[in-house]
Records
---
Amino acid sequence: MIKEDDVTLHLIDEPEQKRSIGELQAEADEAQMADPAYRKELGYWVGTGALGSSWFMARIGQAVVSHFDLGDREGRKNLKLIERAPVIALLATHADTPTARVKTGQVFERLAFLASAEDIGVHPMSQILERPEMRTELAARAGTGEAIPQHLIRLGYVEEERTHTPRWPLGSVLLTDH
């Protein structure tokens, strides 16, 4: 446990504890995907190509995500990701205020930069935190005591990329004086 700016970093590497948190993550995935409004919003973003897909694949993804409850599939996938992660990091605070959330974000930024410098992958997982009843359960499973979970992150070493996601053409993102 490390504390900075009233934000405590809990590092979890015990397999049973990771499995327990992974099971809660699976429940959160299932609950979110069961909500048609959530699927519609997610479908919108998938359809914009925000995940790097071609226009055609983005539109197929949008249709699938918007109209089918894929919660059990996502839940199983994320349970495995959490179980296999060398470490789960949880940032928690003693207050749930806008200031505490901003400080949490600042600590997360520093953690992410440090991890990147050490070639450690960072994967935020917010589904549990978006459901108040699960957030409380996460605190119990992670052993944070009275501290309130603010940010859940998988940490691990990244496999070398075999393919890259599509990039915008350089000319479309450069500012010119024309």
Note: The chain is about 50% helix and 15% strand.
---
Amino acid sequence: MKITQHISEAKDTLFSFELLPPLKGENIHQINQTVEALLEFNPAFVDVTYHREEYVYQEVQSGLLQKRTVRKRPGTVGICAAISHKYNLDTVPHIICGGFSKEETENALIDLDFVGVENVLVLRGDPIRSEGRFKGEADGHSYAIDLLNQVADMNQGRYLDVNLKNTNCTQFCIGVAGYPEKHFEAPNMASDLRWLKRKVEDGAEYIITQMFFDNQAYFNFVKNCRKSGIDIPIFPGLKPLTTKGQLTSLAQNFHVNLPDELVEQVEKAKSKEDVRAIGLEWCIEQARELKAANVPGLHFYTMGRAQPTAKIAREIF
């Protein structure tokens, strides 16, 4: 079922969450454990991240260093197919620009269409850590809007090979990311919203936001989206803070602002257990307020750990 259909048929706020594929060499057991721990909350969909390649340098016999490309978390398409088959859940694979040619993207989308996946989340993706700034493939996409247009073209039966006749039209419901505190590379919020509106005009049907810890940032974002003519559903993305170190790592890696009150409470906490309790209670209060505001759904970033999300969901759903 498409995300838009889930929304139209919902009688209450939807519950959904994000999964990380296992590291290469691991199996799907942990994925299954996470899903099964959250099934009681009747998830509308599960989205599965895609992690692009990284570069490693290995010494060869000559003593020189050889650059090698590796993917540490492959398997997004397979995981989506496995979850859909095993649990009868709708899955949303991340489709990213980084590390993919247009041909590889088309082939991945064909595979997803074959296994019955109806939803995708289109993202530019992160830069490789060693490069500092994002760089697309020479024969790929550098911007999410161009990737979105490739998916939209396939929905119209337009493939890269223009000589193909009587082609199948895919039926992907296309989602995109939204940034309540703006994308860190955008010069300002107005510019960020202009590009988001372009994505909606080009076929985006729903938005999932970056995590945030101040609900007012989300409410302001939705208000500004509506003023800009962006009228598609906007799912708030939530993550409970679980360690003191995340005060720094979340701000650094996800470019989010943590409210003074939350920071002060965590800094004063005397134990790891106290930190987790503070983070959970903060997220529970966020979720309660958002649900009371009739958001279309609450989307949780599990980071591979189901229990914090389960504790929050038991208080909300």
Note: DSSP finds eleven helices and ten strands in the chain.
